[in-house]
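Bumping my old thread because nobody answered last time. Still need a sequence for this structure:
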């Protein structure tokens, strides 16, 4: 990845931050976006120390077309070409059943996980297609493949991401731009803290007695997918911790 340009959304924490460091270690230029600029800058500093050719940050809110377009205009002041786009920004809000679900939670999940992926991809494609190379890596979830109670909107959003990935691969056939989705299961990041709106105890319970994936496990998979030879496209990758045999079948060690 030496001197390649890698754009990562949602790079201020979790998978996005770990992915920035993974690409930094292989000498890439990392272009980082998220809403929390101070956190992004701290990730960029670590990326420089880890060996990034450069690490640049700019505020990005994927739920706004204006913000996405401004972000990509700024990106083009750095580089005319993006080699890898990691559409990672997103997450869940709430675990309410449909009967008591909240409009604002549903709208935000669709805005980030679905429309955000579409917006950022549309704005980035010109920086790939005219160079006849590029790789779009979307971060989906096992929730996009199997539904669970309280997950209707999040599962729908990640199923949307999966179908966007599949449609895009068809649309880009012949352009040499690759399209992949990486769909993790339980991983300990800020995900549950955000889902439960700052309730730390409830968030911690999600990982009780389990050895979940780490952000670094997922970042390593993203980096591996991005570094296959140009004729190889990993279409879809499902990554789960060994304790999670299926979405509802999680092996939890009894408390001692
Ligand atoms: P984190 O909450 O740690 O990271 C989410 C990232 O997305 C943050 O950097 C956040 O930055 C960013 N983000 C959220 N909303 C926006 C927005 N509107 N505009 C720009 N950036 C935004 O969680 P994860 O690292 O776990 O999540 C990353 C992705 O992985 C998500 O798409 C999530 O759905 C998916 N995923 C997570 C799993 C898990 O168990 N952890 C499993 C499967 C998939 P900021 O708040 O600064 O904007
Ligand atoms: C996050 C994984 O199972 O909590 O996408 O929905 S799960």
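Sorry it took so long. Here it is:
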């Amino acid at each position: 990845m030496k001197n390649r340009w890698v754009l990562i959304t949602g790079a201020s924490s979790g998978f996005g931050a770990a992915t920035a460091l993974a690409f930094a270690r292989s000498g890439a230029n990392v272009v980082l976006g998220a809403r929390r600029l101070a956190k992004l800058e701290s990730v960029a500093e670590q990326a420089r120390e880890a060996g990034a050719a450069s690490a640049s940050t700019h505020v990005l809110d994927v739920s706004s077309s204006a913000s996405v377009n401004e972000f990509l205009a700024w990106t083009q002041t750095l580089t005319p070409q993006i080699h890898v786009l990691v559409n990672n920004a997103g997450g869940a809000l709430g675990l309410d059943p449909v009967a008591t679900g909240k409009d604002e939670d549903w709208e935000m999940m669709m805005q980030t996980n679905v429309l955000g992926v579409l917006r950022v991809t549309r704005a980035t494609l010109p920086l790939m297609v005219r160079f006849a190379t590029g790789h779009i890596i979307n971060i989906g979830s096992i929730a996009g493949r199997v539904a669970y109670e309280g997950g209707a909107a999040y599962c729908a959003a990640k199923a949307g991401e999966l179908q966007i990935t599949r449609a895009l691969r068809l649309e880009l056939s012949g352009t040499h731009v690759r399209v992949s989705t990486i769909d993790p299961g339980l991983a300990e990041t800020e995900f549950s803290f955000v889902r439960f709106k700052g309730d730390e105890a409830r968030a911690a319970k999600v990982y009780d007695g389990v050895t979940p994936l780490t952000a670094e496990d997922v970042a390593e998979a993203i980096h591996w997918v991005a570094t296959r030879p140009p004729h190889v496209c990993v279409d879809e990758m499902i990554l789960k911790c060994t304790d999670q045999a299926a979405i509802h079948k999680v092996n939890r060690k009894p408390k001692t």
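Residues 9-16, 34-36, 39, 60-63, 88-91, 112-113, 139, 141, 184, 186-187, 189-191, 194, 215 surround NDP (ligand 1) (CB under 6 Å). Let me know if any region looks off to you.
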